[in-house]
Design brief:
alpha/beta, seven-stranded mixed beta sheet, three-stranded antiparallel beta sheet, 12 strands, 14% strand, binds pyridoxal-5'-phosphate
């Protein structure tokens, strides 16, 4: 099997599994317990918090652990808009469903959502902000890197605009962490969501950065964990794994970026031998591991399924959207119909090799030709 779907999820790095293991058995203490077992678990938690903070340029006091990217997004948006001054959320058309659905679910409570449009390059048009964000805007939420195309979004520009008008900001950085340098101070955002399993950490654990001075209430109520902002006994092994994943991502960032960029270039060079293709990823403004590419006359599901039968794991879009749903991201970009239903996402990781991508490219070329020949 060749796995090229790292934007859906990544394997846990072995060294990180080693770091997690002791906390399942020997170091099983509850971090809220005052005795030695508890203190040791609490110490591990704080170490992980430092690692997460370091990866994004925040401080440990600004990090709370959550059950993943979806929970972090829900927390920031639901509680963020409740704490703000207005009843309007400005987001973009190309957000992940964990943002879009959260906003939609607030509509019955009288909260409106306005969407920043996106250009043909997959990048949100921030120059439209002044038209959309007004007196009633209580929150702006825009992602840092898109999960389907890898396109990097103008978050700093958006945060600058918002700060000048005192509008709180949130950024879903789930697909950016570990793939590009992130500095929350430089970006100037108030809240940021992260998810461990997208950068070789375990599933079901994430973090929410809440800038010092930003006041939002808890999403879940119960105990006083995570400075009363996220009740529930912490997932200590998962959090230790997330901390280790952050350390590893920081250490490997340069190598990861040049390795993925090289593999993506090889893939594209090889795939460009095919006619009637469309590159949906802005190559100069994207995280280097993602290539979204369309093959006219070839249904994405047919290609993904045939490649799967040949041992290649790629995707037709967001894993959460399933196999058959049309991509709202490509639609927002104005991708024409002949490519809208015939694009796939290839997302690379550090463990992929040049041989993996050469074999994959050859099989894609062969499969595309076979499917086209059927018509
Ligand atoms: N945001 C983005 C951009 C994502 O790609 C994903 C996962 O696919 C999520 C949020 C949800 O993260 P999680 O799977 O940790 O809930």
């Amino acid at each position: 099997m060749i796995y090229l779907d790292h934007n859906a999820t990544t394997p846990c790095a072995p060294e990180l599994v080693d770091a997690m293991m002791p906390f399942f058995s020997g170091g099983f203490g509850n971090p809220s317990s005052p005795h030695r077992a508890g203190r040791e678990a609490a110490k591990a938690l704080e170490k992980a918090r430092e690692s997460v903070a370091r990866l994004i340029g925040g401080t440990p006091e600004e990090i709370i652990f959550t059950g993943g990217g979806t929970e972090s997004n829900n927390h920031a948006i639901v509680r963020g808009i409740e704490s703000g001054r207005g009843n309007q959320i400005v987001t973009s058309e190309i957000e992940h469903s964990a943002v879009l659905s959260t906003c939609k679910n607030l509509h019955p409570r009288g909260i409106r959502t306005l969407y920043l449009p996106c250009g043909g390059d997959g990048i949100v048009r921030a120059d439209n902000l002044a038209d959309l964000a007004g007196e009633n805007t209580g929150l702006i939420s825009v992602m840092l890197a898109n999960n389907e195309t890898g396109a990097i979004q103008p978050v700093k520009e958006i945060a600058d605009f918002a700060r000048a008008r005192n509008i709180p900001t949130h950024c879903d950085a789930v697909q950016a962490a570990g793939k590009m340098r992130i500095d929350v101070r430089e970006l100037g955002i108030d809240m940021m969501s992260l998810s461990a399993h997208k950068f070789n950490g375990p599933k079901g654990v994430g973090a929410l950065f809440i800038r010092r001075g930003v006041k939002i209430p808890a999403l879940l109520f119960g105990g006083s964990q995570e400075r009363r902002l996220r009740a529930g006994t912490e997932n200590v092994p998962g959090i230790v794994g997330m901390g280790a994943a952050c350390d590893l991502a920081e250490k490997n960032l340069d190598e990861y970026r040049s390795h993925c960029a090289d593999l993506r270039r090889r893939l594209l060079d090889h795939l460009s031998t095919l006619e009637r293709i469309r590159i949906n990823t802005p190559m100069d403004a994207s995280v280097p591991n993602t290539l979204n590419i369309g093959f006219e006359g070839v249904a994405s599901e047919a290609l993904v399924t045939r490649l799967d039968m040949r041992g290649i794991c790629v995707s037709s879009g967001s894993a959460c959207a399933g196999l058959t749903k049309t991509s709202h991201v490509l639609k927002a970009m104005g991708v024409p119909d002949n490519f809208l239903y015939s694009s796939i996402r290839i997302s690379l990781g550090l463990s992929n090799t040049a041989d993996d991508v050469e074999r994959t490219a050859a099989l894609i070329v062969q499969t595309v030709r076979e499917i086209r020949a059927l018509k």
